[in-house]
Design a protein that fits this description.
Number of strands: 8
CATH architecture: 3-Layer(aba) Sandwich
Helix content: 25-40%
Distance between the termini: 32 Å
Low-confidence stretches: 1-22
CATH topology: Aminopeptidase
CATH class: Alpha Beta
Number of helices: 9
Bound molecules: zinc ion
Shape: globular
Strand content: 15-25%
Largest sheet: 8 strands, mixed
Amino acid sequence: MVSNKLILSVLLFSTIFSLSCASGHIDMFPETQPLVRDISLINARLIKAASSSQLSIDVIGEVEYGKYKAPVWVATFTPLKETKYRVFLSGGIHGDEPAGAEIMVKTIEMVAKDPKKYEDISFDIVPIVNPWGWSHNIRFNQEGRDINRDFASFKTQESAIIKKFVEGKIYDLIIDHHEDPSSKGFYMYQYGNPDTTLSRKVIEAVRGSGYPIEQDVNMIILKTKDGLIDAPMWGLWYMKITRQLSITNYFRLHNSKDVYTVETPTILDLKDRLGIHQMALEILINSLYQNEISSASLD
Ligand SMILES: [Zn+2]
């Protein structure tokens, strides 16, 4: 017989864990929601980048809400030499975190312009996972859903597009780029990986450049320890069972053993936030050459 105490602990634990992950759904936004950013400007930059022989831009799905329609793009970089490592990068799943999307477009422009920089790494880069949110500067999609809590249920158009694209693909490294309007400093997540050396290297580089490191992001179970949230595998399975899986949780379970989320505090200027994302990206990508990527297994 299951004791009442056990049931009570499970219920209490579920409530606490759910609280730490915030609600994934609010009300739907009206069609009259004002546009804040123009997606055609991103389109123009991507078309220009695609003039590089090493880069192609594909539409992997179209998001549609009434009159609003926008593509979800993937930029694919094919290296000059034979592919040694495969990297997936994403940004803009939360529409009010502009540095994540912008650093993705800048990275696409950079690899297009300078294909020698990463001559044996192939990239799939999705610059804006949530185009409606990005266009309107809103965290959610038009239905008021947090796409980054939808990678177990796949109720949103956006999560379904990403799932279809990554199905069956294995990457050596995946990084998702975010911002946090409530944090006071930089922090990052790693998942199901017992070795924190590489994350610590990123955090020390950010600190060494004079930027603040978050000490206490508003999570109840998973504490930020000097800029790092080290999510255990059981936490990912728990998120899956409670239907709150994030994009990186999903990637860690299905597509890569080395998955990171980087978060910049919006109290800093955009230029500084972009600089931090750039720094984190370079250190994580260069680690591929230095055998620093952990020996964690893809379960
Ligand atoms: Zn975010």
